[in-house]
Design a protein that fits this description.
The structure is a homodimer of 532-residue chains. Chain A is built from 20 helices and 13 strands. Chain A folds into three domains: 252 residues, 3-Layer(aba) Sandwich (Rossmann fold), CATH 3.40.50.2000; 161 residues, Rossmann fold (3-Layer(aba) Sandwich); 48 residues. In chain A, 50% of the residues lie in helices and 11% in strands. Chains A, B: InterPro entries: UDP-glycosyltransferase, UDP_glucos_trans, UDP_glycos_trans_CS.
């Protein structure tokens, strides 16, 4: 354990030595809004502090990207016609659809439609970027060394292709396994669960059937989601591009993955894993929170947040939750900005914001109720706090499945959960020691790493800037078509050779047999004629 | 470039902080003899310096493992009946067979037989380990946390399985793609060249056919090589084991790989890449070498070594080489202990030993003539020295192919090369700037890394010691059989469902048609009867 603590200490000294030593490069950052920006911001800030000229490109009206803190990077905006209200409404409608109880297949169709709508709203902003001559001129003249982008809306990838700049992806993942497919990384369907399958890596036969069917469906629905994006890219790049074309020339993919949390699977040499980089820095608690935690006594506290992107839920759900929270002796700190449930118990403190990672790091924290966003889950793992997960949308169901399959938390179905379900789950993760033991084990493994994920991310962005890409990490598979990649032409050729050899052998045998028989026949005939 | 130099500096400060901070564990090391031990020794020494109790287990009579320098680890020997002469002779016969010009398929058969013989000699030593009750008792009582082993002769893996200890592999690779197969790592035959194929990752159709045929042959010949080892393991572990059984429970595989040199391909999360860890430490040249290098004038020097394991070659070959070396103005430092060729030119200095990495690091070094062993090739890459490669055996042909395909050197066929070929190749790599530019590019990429490979290796061995393995990095694929892994059962099921649906649909259609026809028929019949 001593050594585990020493590594981060030494790593920090290692990092402290680096700033100021680097030769400055020029980096263009095309981020994704909302929670995606949270950990990307840390990398961007670090790169700017290390002496690089970092320009973050965002629309004039963007969403959840407020720059409240001092930062070392430059922000460049481009004009858009979208209003903040429209973005808010698009996202609210998206969340609301997830909270509706519709029967199958209406639920799937409703989710597909609302997701496509949300995607379209953001694609529109990207379209307007390419209409802004002033912005394009500025970018063209800036002489960037590389682009760092979250690929979820393809805007950064299109821009990098447009300016022929090497680019680095920074992401949690993409729908339809695109992030692995574009990198030519095999994903065996038998033990690599697809996104939205909600399966673990140990699947039953029918889960494997389901996983395979999902992979077939992906062929269609991602082309649907991204239709507008592909159309825009094709127009901008003046050639027919596919999703894979757009993504497959990324030099390096920095992924917010850690195999304590993700299921082990094949990866590629240009993938860098930085899961949990968001929970490293710990600050002391603000006084008001310190006071609440200290007043919680021996029972300690429970931290409850449904993430920075969801601030309110339907009142009926809110009341059920409030009811359940009253059943535990812990003080519950609930981040919630909606209408206060009338049955709010005394042990529950509603707050508009909470220092989530710092609260989770406090030794008095007993449990974490979360929507299962990847940032929150990694904070739970870093700080070894067992979780109750209420996944809402996106990758959250899959994240919850991963935590639950490791015995480090319990998942509730937000549409069906009752007050009793919530109460039971919360009591279980607090009182049953196995949850704490499992999350502690995951935490120990997660924190035992040779280099801090933030430094790893910074290194690889700088690597691509210094060397103008990383072509030595690009597999030759990119130069093969589907038939060649799977060696189908080779197998067909070998089969043809085998069949031809067999055919010739059989023909030869038959010829020989016939010759023998003919000779025999002639002999016997001549014998016969002689006897006659 | 400044930053590139700063990383190693900061990394060293990072390392210097670590020794003495670690809590000591107990590590058993089962090494492989010869050149394999060279870089493993560095990791073992570092681990011992960091306060772990490290025991290196080797036979009383071992080969090329002389401990000339002071070391912090303990060496434990076990009694064997083999004589040093026998080991020497087995290896000499192995090299001699590679230097014989035999027609196909006699050459393949001769190489297969001599390799099997060499393998058997070393397996015999492992068998004697398991006969030594005293050694087994000592190992059993020592309470090791983990085993670090080079898997090439399977002895360490058998021992680790016998004592149920977690184990870490340290290797360059294994024949028959075993190191990837056992780790459940996909190796697409279309762009991942098999060992001994001598192909690059960009293969023609017929090279891909050849690669596929080699993979079929591997199914047979590795079972042949390892027959004695599997038999011993099955006896020792008292169950039927296969090669894959022996290898697939390695917690972590530390591989002497770098994708500057290796072709990019799928990898697994429990694979750690430490290629080039052997060429980090640079010492000043001994005086006698310093004097030779300084006296070489503006032309500089050429470093020539066929590795630590081959010290002499047939006289005819030696004379051809000597002749060629006289054709360049550079001073050639040739590590050679055999009979001196009578035509040795003045610019060639024969030495019994040379500080290879330090000489390659000297700015006056213009070229490196090497047999293409992986240690030497990495030293060439680290120090950006273009190479002439004369591969002899093992992975050397594949290594040479990799260097040549990157335009950083030229390969000669040691059996067929003439004096002119050697001279032409040497002059080309010295005078044609492209070789220097290419090796410089590879070197820049190789040295630009976030953490030193030695520290990475040390971290992962300690990780396995601390956590008693790394089960979170073990893919679920290990729990599937071949049919399940490739989803053949799922595809068969889906096909059956589709066929059944089709069958039922067709039957329904036919039934409906028949009903319609029948009705029509009846109507028309009744119509007819009415008209009558």
């Amino acid at each position: 354990m001593t050594l585990r603590l020493c590594y981060p200490l030494a790593a920090w000294i290692f990092i402290l030595l680096l700033p100021g030593l680097s030769e400055g490069g020029k980096l263009l950052v095309v981020p994704m809004v909302g929670s995606h920006w949270l950990s990307m911001k840390e990398v961007v800030q670090k790169l700017a502090e290390r002496g690089h000229e970092v320009v973050v490109l965002k629309p004039e009206v963007s969403w959840q990207m407020g720059e409240t803190q001092k930062h070392a990077y430059t922000v460049k905006t481009y004009p858009v016609s979208t209003k903040l209200e429209e973005l808010d409404n698009a996202f609210k409608a998206y969340v609301a659809t997830h909270l509706k109880s519709l029967p199958f297949p209406l639920n799937v169709l409703a989710l597909y439609n609302i997701s496509s709508n949300a995607f379209s709203t953001f694609f529109l902003q990207c379209k307007e970027l390419f209409s802004s001559t002033e912005t394009l001129q500025y970018l063209n003249q800036s002489g960037f060394d590389a682009v760092l982008t979250d690929p979820i809306f393809m805007c950064g990838a299109t821009l990098a292709n447009y300016f022929s700049l090497p680019f680095v992806f920074f992401m949690r993942g993409l729908p339809c396994n695109l992030h692995f497919e574009a990198a030519q990384c095999p994903s065996p369907l038998s033990y690599v669960p697809r996104t939205f399958s909600f399966s673990s890596d140990h699947m039953t036969f029918f889960q494997r059937v389901e996983n395979t069917l999902i992979s077939f469906l992906e062929l269609f629905y991602c082309n649907g989601y991204y239709r507008a994006a592909i159309q825009l890219s094709s127009e901008v790049l003046q050639r027919d591009v596919s999703l894979i074309d757009l993504l497959n020339s990324a030099a390096v993919s920095i992924m917010r993955f850690d195999f304590v949390f993700e299921y082990p699977r094949p990866v590629m040499p240009n993938m860098v894993f930085v899961g949990g980089m968001n929970c490293a820095e710990k600050k002391p608690l603000p006084k008001e929170f310190e006071a609440i935690v200290n007043a919680s006594g021996e029972h300690g506290i429970v931290v409850f947040s449904l993430g920075s992107m969801v601030s309110e839920i339907p009142m009926k759900k809110g009341m059920e939750i409030a009811d359940a929270l009253g059943s535990v002796p812990q003080t519950v700190l609930w981040r919630y900005t909606g209408e206060v449930p009338p049955n709010l118990p005394k042990n529950v403190k509603l707050v508009k914001w909470l220092p989530q990672n710092d609260l989770l790091a406090h030794p008095k924290t007993r449990a974490f109720i979360t929507h299962g966003g990847s940032h929150g889950v990694y904070e739970g793992i870093c700080n070894a706090v067992p979780m109750v997960l209420m996944p809402l949308f996106g990758d959250q169901m899959d994240n919850a499945k991963r935590v639950e399959s490791r015995g480090a938390g319990l998942t509730l179905n937000i549409l069906e959960m009752t007050s009793k379900d919530i109460s039971d789950a919360l009591k279980a993760v607090i009182n049953d020691k196995k949850y704490k033991e499992n999350i502690q084990r995951l935490s120990d493994l997660h924190l035992d790493r040779p280099i801090h994920p933030l430094d790893l991310a910074v290194h690889w962005v700088e690597f691509v800037m210094r060397h103008k890409g990383a072509p030595h990490l690009r597999p030759a598979a990119h130069d093969l078509n589907w038939i060649q990649y799977h060696s189908l032409d080779v197998f067909a050729f070998l089969l043809a050779v085998v069949l031809l050899s067999l055919f010739i052998s059989v023909k030869c045998c038959m010829f020989c047999c016939r010759r023998c028989c003919f000779k025999k026949g002639r002999k016997s005939k001549s014998g016969k004629s002689k006897t006659h």
